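User: What would this chain look like folded?
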Amino acid sequence: MTIEEHYTSIAPKLTNWLVATGSSYEDACDLVQRSFLKLWERRDDLRDNDSAVVGLIYTIAKNLRKNAWRDDSRMAFVDEIHEDAMEAAQPEPSPSDAEYLRNRLKKALAQLPPLLREAYTMFQIGELSIREIAHETGATENLVKVRIHRAKQKLQTLLSDLRPE
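Assistant: Here's the prediction, encoded as structure tokens.
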């Protein structure tokens, strides 16, 4: 596959995964673009191994995000004060509101232990295979399956009040 074909196939999944694991949509889009730019810069070193490219692009995006978060943590958070004041003025969303459900899911995902969250979001949101996740994380395929299963159980517990009766 060409890098353009990889972009068409991977970019939406990678964007969704970044958003689900804590990035804003705008930051996720930027990270995806920067990740593929880095991949493009390394194009001569790539082999014709599509699963390796998928793992590499997720690793690049994850590292770029870590760097961005580290750099952001060094800045003063003056904007947060303004955002907190704006949020206080907003009415509480209702449980039927899509934004409310998205926020609940984000908060529930944030409560998962990091290894469970990583495996679950790579599988469900990033749409990577068990084998790709195992390769990416250095875990065995069985361990990846266990982590995904435990993440699902924990999310069911955390979001049990949202189930229709």
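Residues 76-82 have pLDDT under 50 and may be disordered. If you want, I can go into more detail on any region.
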